[in-house]
Amino acid sequence: MKRFNFGTFLVDDSNRRAFQICQDIAELKPVAPCPIMLLGDEGCGKTHLLYSIVNRIRAGTTKTGLAYVTALDFPDQVRHLIDDPSPVERAQSAVLLVDQLDRFKDLIDELEAVVRIFLDHKHYVVLATKVHPGRLQNLSQGFRDIIDAGQIVQVVPRGAESQIETIRREARDDADAQLAKKQQEVDELRALLNRVGKESSHEAPANVAALRAELEAERIAK
């Protein structure tokens, strides 16, 4: 997941707020209120943003506690924090990232307990879901209250117009690169044409003219 970073995330007006908040968290800037709930359909970039936070923190110099939890992967060391929260208590900074909140079932109570530990010690918590928390049946009222005390940030898929602009920009860049390559070939042909003219000034005029015509035809084709 190293390919997921803030530099590869395509930003527009529909996801700019989510991008900025996640970037601020990755840089350990003040973000309030917490927890942050990233809400959006599959493919809108929620997981990309979460992994961008992970990769930015890992690349930084500040020692920061980091826990990444999904419905399919709830690491034992994270669950052990319920019995022994001292690692979170001692951490100068820590971030809890929870993906696929809408898929949590059996371990939802343990997740709530871990979320409370991070928030009680003034650390960051980011939750991601494709279903609005008001429609999640497995959440306790206490967990709903936690989410309501934070902020919900929608991550909307990039619009068709933005995608078209991206395709157009990439096409323009490719065309510019091809044009620059062709221009270089033309310049090389011109240089060769001039050199042949100088070196062949004492040769038969017909041969020189024929060679010039051939090179000029190739230049035009390029």
Structure, explained:
- There is one protein chain.
- Helix 5 links the parallel strand 3 (94-98) and strand 4 (124-129).
- 51% of the residues lie in helices and 11% in strands.
- It is built from 8 helices and 5 strands.
- With 222 residues, the protein is an alpha/beta fold.
- It starts with 15 loop residues before the first helix and ends with a helix.
SSE diagram, text form:
Elements: H1 16-26, E1 36-39, H2 46-59, E2 65-69, H3 76-79, H4 86-90, E3 94-98, H5 108-120, E4 124-129, H6 141-149, E5 151-154, H7 160-199, H8 205-221
Parallel strand pairs: 1-4, 1-5, 2-3, 3-4
Helix pairs in contact: 1-2, 7-8
SSE sequence, one letter per element: HEHEHHEHEHEHH
Poorly predicted sequence stretches spanning 5 or more consecutive residues: none
Mean pLDDT equals 86
- Determine Rg (CA atoms, Å): 29 Å
Given the structure, what is the number of helices? 8
The tally of strands reads: 5
How much helix, percentage-wise, in residues? 40-55%
Numbering strands along the chain, what is their spatial order in the largest sheet? 2-3-4-1-5
Distance between the termini: 43 Å
Main sheet characteristics = 5 strands, parallel
How much strand? Answer: 5-15%
Task: Summarize, please.
The protein has 222 residues and is α/β, with parallel strands linked by helices.
Keywords summarizing the entry:
5-stranded parallel beta sheet, 8 helices, 222 residues, single chain, alpha/beta, elongated
